[in-house]
Design a protein that fits this description.
Blueprint: H1 2-15, E1 30-32, E2 41-49, E3 53-54, E4 56-57, H2 60-77, E5 82-85, E6 93-100
Parallel strand pairs: 1-5
Antiparallel strand pairs: 2-6, 3-4, 5-6
């Protein structure tokens, strides 16, 4: 009984964990919409991927935020300061386009 309870608590805690943190450079990258970047320079495409399931399905909002955070970190490494999602998240993956807007 104690073991089952311990496992249930661990699964619940892990399902709520964030595995990704925005770094200092990524914090400077904004999430934009396509109309917002018409005068910006494209810097490339980003394919974000995170765990959508850790023993159980993780919350879609947490997965979505991690995908955005990963894209922001990658965009900063590319010299971009804005990202635009190219579609909805699917199975822990999502594509973004990175832009440099001056």
């Amino acid at each position: 009984m104690l073991r089952s309870t311990l496992i249930a608590v661990m699964v619940t805690v892990m399902a709520g964990c964030n595995f990704v943190q925005v770094n200092e450079s990524g914090a400077m990258v904004t999430q934009a919409r396509a109309p917002d970047v018409t005068h910006c320079t494209p810097k490339g495409q980003i394919d974000s991927q995170t765990r959508a399931k850790v023993v159980i399905e993780r919350g879609s909002e947490k997965v979505q935020q991690e995908l955005i955070d990963l894209a922001r970190n990658q965009a900063a490494r590319m010299g971009a300061n804005a990202i635009v999602a190219l579609g909805e998240p699917r199975n822990g993956t999502q594509q973004f386009r990175a832009y440099r807007c001056d």
